[in-house]
Amino acid sequence: MTQPLLGMRVRHAGSGDPLLLLHAFPLSGAQWEPQIQALAERHTLLVPDLPGFGGSPAPGEQYTLDDVADSLAATLDRYRVPRVAVCGLSMGGYIAFAMLRRHPERVARLVLADTRAGADTEQARAGRETNAQLAETSGSAAIADKMLPSLLSPGAPPALVAHLRALIAGNAPRGIALALRAMAQRPDSSDLLGAIAAPTLVIVGADDALTPPDEARRMQEAIPGCRLVVIPDAGHISNLEQPQVFSQALGSFL
Ligand code: MLT
Fold first, then answer.
1. Would you say 88 and 22 are in contact if contact means Cβ atoms under 8 Å apart?
2. 8 Å CB contact between 61 and 32
3. Strand 10-13 versus strand 227-231 pairing type
4. Confidence of residue 237 (pLDDT cuts 50, 70, 90)
5. If you measure from the C-alpha of residue 236 to the centroid of ligand 1, how many angstroms do you get, rounded to a whole number?
6. How far apart are the C-alpha atoms of 147 and 131, rounded to whole Å?
7. Beta carbons within 10 angstroms of residue 57's beta carbon
8. Ligand 1 pocket test, candidate residues 183, 238, 241, most atoms within 8 A of CB
9. Residues enclosing ligand 1, CB less than 6 A?
10. In sequence order, what are the residues at sequence separation of 6 or more whose Cβ sits closer than 8 angstroms to the Cβ of residue 229?
11. Out of 71, 88, 101, 254, which could bridge 96 as a Cys pair, Cβ 3.0 to 4.6 Å?
């Protein structure tokens, strides 16, 4: 069944070859501020707040990550961008896989950061439902308390922890719950890896506790011609913990 397109606020900045930046759960497009600053001189940046995050409304009904990919393809049409470099971090990476599945012709280059190709295990799905109900009953701050310890490396500066906490707590609980259920439903994308035609880079924080370097390496080895960058002193949200190193890796790949 064709789903209605999901409304997303999209930040549009810079000029040059287009780059779509897809943020992690449960953040917003604001996650990419350092990369917007670093790359806007050479790239047209399209930075959505994914459905239910930042300035994008929570959809009225449960959606899938494939619905997000279709809505992003429509967004690219609106900006008259036929092909785009796609960089997705964690949940953003899951959506990049959905784009590969549904709109491979739109993906000119691919960056998979701190993410995984596999689907959730039954245990992970159950954990997501627990967290969805926590968001609905206790609010976004409870999700921030639960997730923050696993998002950054142990040495992350308190100001960055506070910044992430504010981003998470600023999101509507319903948007968080819907995204958790959408991630739980996503299919396994491992079979796609060997057939990825777009030049691809995998980036991972050396201290990423959620999608660790071993997993990134396995993904890199399965993608033809793929390169891997491991960022020292960075956890899961590696683009914010080591913004210059991340931007440098991304910029030189593009
Ligand atoms: C993210 O950073 O987007 C999340 O950790 C993804 C997930 O929960 O699988």
1. yes
2. no
3. unpaired
4. very high
5. 9
6. 10
7. 16
8. 183
9. 24-25, 90-91, 183, 210, 236
10. 201, 202, 203, 204, 249
11. 88
Task: Give every strand in the sheet of 10-13, ordered side by side.
Answer: 10-13, 43-48, 17-22, 84-89, 107-113, 200-205, 227-231
Q: Whose CA is nearest to atom 4 of ligand 1?
A: 25
Q: Coil, helix or strand for 21?
A: strand
Instruction: Give residue 24 CA to ligand 1 midpoint distance, Å.
Output: 6
Instruction: Give bridge partners of residue 48 from the DSSP assignment.
Output: 10
Query: What pTM did the predictor assign?
Result: 0.97
Ligand 1 center from residue 47 Cα (angstroms): 18
User: Per residue in 133-176, pLDDT tens?
Assistant: 999 999 999 999 999 999 999 999 999 999 999 999 999 999 99
**Residue 5: per-residue pLDDT:** 83
Structure tokens at 153: 């490396």
3-state secondary structure 77-146: HHCCCCCEEEEEECHHHHHHHHHHHHCHHHEEEEEEECCCCCCCCHHHHHHHHHHHHHHHHHCHHHHHHH
Distance 177 CA to ligand 1 centre (A): 13
State the distance from the centre of ligand 1 to the C-alpha of 91, rounded, in angstroms: 5
Query: Are 29 and 11 in contact, with CB atoms under 8 Å apart?
Result: yes
Q: Which amino acid is at 152?
A: L
Q: Whose CA is nearest to atom 9 of ligand 1?
A: 91
The pLDDT value given to residue 3: 56
Pick from 241, 172, 176: which is nearest to 203 by CA? 241
pLDDT one-digit tens code per residue, 192-201: 999 999 999 9
